Amino acid sequence: MPKMRPWLLKVITVTAILAVIGAIIGLDVLRRHNGEGTDQLSNPAFYSMPSPLPVGAPGEIIRSEQIAGAPSQTSAWRVIYHSRDLAGRDIPVSGMVIVPSSPAPAGGRTVVAWAHPTTGAAQNCAPSLAMDPFQLIEGMHLLLDAGFAIAATDYPGLGVAGESSYLLGVPESNSVLDSVRAARQIDEVHASTNVLLWGHSQGGQAALFAAQRAAEYSPELHLKGVAVAAPAADLRALMTANLNNISGVTITSYAVTSYEAAYAQPESSSQIDDILTSKGAAATPAMAALCLITQTEQIHAIATPLIGSYVTSDPSTTAPWQELLAENSAGGSPINVPIFVGQGLADKLVAPASTREFVAGLCAAEEDVSFHEYPGVDHTFAAYASLPALADWLIRVEAGQSPANC
């Protein structure tokens, strides 16, 4: 038999290895696809809540189930847990908990509470309801590889039926912190009291609010730091910058729905939507019922003709919106833990100048801020662009350091 040439043997070996890897990946994709299909079938019963809702403490689990389609080398659960709305009323909130299969450290795992970017304001827009519910957790594999547990809230009104909490700092932040409490009740998670917060866009606002309120709302938790990418920190600047574009129309339609439910009183029920033109008011219910990622074309079809004629004036300078946007903007209270901020310089939604101004305010307040800007990066990719610097920041914060570059 002729002797096989070394280069040919190498090619055959590499081909065989790639074939095995491909088969393994294919089997995992098939496993996850089948598991996700099973999860989808169970959704209607899982997300339906009894009426009246049983009384429970914030973070107490109402219902949980293991996710069959969890990524390889992880375990994950859908959870529904008690939280509190703007008025302090007991509400159910859904979300997920994910852990790596590696052994937990002796003191338990630090929990990273993930606050997701905007997916919509309607019940069916919840990330945990998606066919791939892990897709929106930016940096998930980095966090799991580092040994963290992840608690990912849907926010109130998403997943479980209820009033929307879109851009409402208090109920959003309650749901973020209560997701950590829920994670700690699952024995297999082995969660410690240590918490890190990580959020993008709307989730940046939610994470910053959670950091401001953690000591008061969840004193049993040990907040170690908060990281945000392209945060919707200043809602007045966000509204003004997007007043006459499709993003502004979409954001405002979601905000009108949640703010009207949270703030409108019977004697002044029209004050919140007085900001809308007659065409805007007529179109808002249809827009607010659509999800940002999966129904973008339908949203654009409604919103595009309304650009420049959706609102009667700038919400950031018009009562009661001016006061409500200020109330729900981050930075009103000290944070007192290390803060990471990433911002793309090609961002057309959250203006880089707005984030710079927010960071300058944090530095002036002597907060420990690590600020990073990324040329050419737009709003969508701000969190991904932040991951290399975030990974280093997480290591240092876990070690008890306070990295800052103010």
From TrEMBL:
Residues annotated as transmembrane = 7-27
Which controlled-vocabulary keywords does the entry list? Membrane, Transmembrane, Transmembrane helix
Q: Which InterPro entries match?
A: AB_hydrolase_fold, Lipase_secreted
Q: Which GO terms describe its biological process?
A: lipid catabolic process
A single Gene Ontology molecular function, please? triacylglycerol lipase activity
Q: Which Pfam families match?
A: LIP
Q: Does the keyword Membrane apply?
A: yes
Gene3D superfamilies named among the record's database cross-references? alpha/beta hydrolase
What is the name of this protein? Lipase
User: Source species, please?
Assistant: Arthrobacter glacialis
Question: Taxonomic classification, please?
Answer: Bacteria, Bacillati, Actinomycetota, Actinomycetes, Micrococcales
